[in-house]
Write a structure and sequence with these properties.
It is built from 6 helices and 11 strands. With about 260 residues, it is α/β, with parallel strands linked by helices. It folds into 2 domains: about 220 residues, Survival protein SurE-like phosphatase/nucleotidase (Stationary-phase Survival Protein Sure Homolog, Chain: A), CATH 3.40.1210; about 30 residues. The strands form 2 sheets. The protein has a 9-stranded mixed beta sheet with strand order 3-4-2-1-5-6-7-11-8, with helices on both faces.
């Protein structure tokens, strides 16, 4: 299968190297186009006010992998790859493996998910992969599962165009409890700005965040309540797979608002 891989942790991140090398060794045709540095939590930002540059990178990946480092955002990288760098479209776009989970409402900020979403926007099925740890350096279980998932998608393609948001627990391979299809949960954070003073005496703020609770999504979202949420299954060492789309229309709201009447006179 022809694969395009990107991320938001940058070209030097161990997660993307482990993923790309694993899939190349499995015989897939792998191309990497990713940021030249850390670009986490950039969401779906695109670079419009300055040029985007990309350079071929050698000696980092498996010899069969062709790689570029791009000075743009994760979404820039995928868009540039699809419209300028690749000779033909890939069969699948993958993003990751990210250092840290992308669960619940975190996906709205995630550069990892946004890179995969850019592939989806261009009509290519996509997968975002995240390791649920900010400190673990063992990305091999996540890469192993990515290989299994790619083989699954090769044998049985997705019935509709979608993005699979995959979170892998930070445990050894034989400690993974299984794989579960999930719905997106809700994570609430207490956002704390650490106020500091620079050497010139000027005040600046550093954003930090801490999860304070995981909340069940409201029933009005028309999602099956018997399907568990991603934030819950990852705690039990299950791999979570959540199907996503880019159409954010609120179905229940559409039905309710259709009864509104407006007078413009």
């Amino acid at each position: 299968m022809k694969l395009l891989i990107s991320n938001d942790d940058g070209i030097s991140a161990l997660g993307i190297r482990t993923l790309a090398n694993c899939l190349a060794e499995a015989g897939h045709h792998v191309t990497v186009v990713c940021p030249d540095r850390e670009r986490s939590a950039t969401g779906h930002g695109l670079t419009l006010q300055q040029p985007i540059r990309a350079e071929i990178v050698e000696s980092i990946f498996h010899p069969a992998v062709k790689a570029w480092a791009c000075d743009g955002t994760p979404s820039d990288c995928v868009k540039l790859a699809l419209w300028a760098l690749l000779e033909s479209p890939p069969d699948l776009v993958l993003s990751g493996v990210n250092q840290g989970a992308n669960l619940g409402t975190e996906i709205l900020y995630s550069g990892t998910v946004s890179a995969a979403m850019e592939g989806l926007i261009e009509g290519i099925p996509s997968v975002a992969l995240s390791l649920a740890s900010h400190i673990s350096r063992d990305f091999q279980p996540a890469a192993n599962f990515a290989k299994i998932l790619v083989d699954q998608l090769t044998a049985k393609p997705l019935p509709e165009l979608m993005l699979l948001n995959v979170n892998i627990p930070s445990v050894k391979w034989d400690e993974i409890a299984g794989v579960t299809i999930t719905r997106q949960g809700i994570r609430r954070y207490v956002d704390v700005f650490d106020q500091r003073v620079d050497p010139r005496g000027k005040t600046y703020y550093w954003l930090t965040g801490e999860v304070i609770e995981d909340v069940e999504p409201p029933e009005g979202l028309n999602l099956p309540q018997n399907i568990p949420t991603d934030v819950h299954v990852i705690r039990k060492n299950f791999i979570s797979i959540t199907p996503l789309q880019y159409n954010l229309t609120y179905a229940t709201g559409l039905q309710e608002l259709s009864t509104w009447e407006f007078s413009l006179t």
